[in-house]
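User: I'm curious whether this sequence folds into something compact or stays loose and floppy. Could you predict its structure so I can see for myself?
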Amino acid sequence: MQEAHVSVLQNGSEQEACNVLNDFTTRNAQVFSFPDLSPDLKTKIVEALIHRLNAPGSSKCHVLCLKTLRMFSREKDKLVNMVSEPTIATIMRMTGLNHYASKEGDLVEIQNGDPEVMLEALKCLCNLVFNSQLAQRICSKNGCVEGIIQRLKTYKDPALPHEIKFFDMRLLSLLTALCEETSYNPSLDLHKQGVFPFCTHLEEEAHFMRLVCVLKELLLCKTKSKDLKEELQSMTVNLLTNVPLDCYEELLTPLNEDDDDIGLENKEAEYDGKNMEAILVLLDFLYHRLDKPSKMTKDSLAPILCSLCQMCKANRTIRKFCRLKVLPPLKEDVKRLPEEGKTLRNKLCKILTSASEIKDMVAEFLFILCKESVARMVKYTGYGNAAGLLANRGMLMGGRKCDGDYSSGSEESDTEEYARLRDQVNPITGRWEEDKVNPMEEMSEEQKEYEAMRLVNDLDKLQRQGIIQPCRVGDDGKPEPVEHILQLTENIKLKKEDKN
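Assistant: Here's the prediction. I'll summarize afterward.
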């Protein structure tokens, strides 16, 4: 694009402008950088495009203007001439997210426009928010988030294309994930961060409940491709980390007579009189993320683990259902190590002793499913796998420090297979093991003492070389280092003296 084209965009007829833009967008559809455009020329082009968008014109011309801006918005390091309050205000107006208040102060519904124009504007705004911190700050204060929440009310309108809903959620997800004013924070809800200052508390709660209902619909909707489905689910999960805890109930749908008549497509989703399809989708999303090495990162797994932890701790029905799916009653599988296999339990247990950044979140999720019971956690994961969490919480000596508001019922229902094998389950590994011959049975006392001292010397050597650091459990239930390996026997001697 050259200087002559700028003049056409600024002063030419609509058809002339469309011809220039159509040629440019067609030739550069897959281009992500425009090094041939000087900053000055690019600024003039952007100004001309914004001028066209603010002037009356056909939707075709507006779509081409927005397509060109969307292409420019891909250049992360060259957005200075695009990121300003007037420019973003124009693009936002084209998204249909603008809203205004009546004289009484009540919010009025947003004014939707041409769907194709709205979609292109949303794509452009998503790019700008993703690539520019300044755009993030502007969109967090110009009513963009409030506009999306207002449009949630219209999502049942069949005339509103699915793509509009998709990019609405993408934009909201980006703002909550990237912007400090609306950032993702597991310990704070959006309504506590002042994202909706125009709402009273009740209005605020209603907005969030409606948001969760929409997020549930997005989790269950059909998509054209697996990649698009995963992207949509990922954005939905990011938003779920920020809703108030009492709104998770909106993910569940009460089963009614109609459900019994027509039957659910997935009978596994029926639980406690509720349709749990949305929860199944979230668990399936976690399973597939764990199944892909490329997705095994903190950024990829933290949101889904955080969401599941929050909703399981806040909602008894969701927790019981997740426990049934993640930690089902043990049967013959107790003959394998908890981390061996392809089930969700196996995959999660495997992470507990890995170097992964999210192993603590995995442990927290499993612990919540176990109602923060040490005995139950050890039963399903093995003491070795659970040791990290127990050490962090000062619970290595057992006991139970339950921070959650859990029911008093035990929910234990050992199967016949597990009950038959239970006495031979090694609590350290969490696996059933056949009885083994005691290698010390035929040893004399002198031989036992010799082997014990040899073990002490080997451990002492490893400690002095800095290879291991022996610890014992302190009074606070956490491991504390010892200076010499023989200190590990002090508690044993004290116990023997107490018995005598």
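Summary: The chain has a mean pLDDT of 82. The first strand starts at residue 253 and ends at 254.
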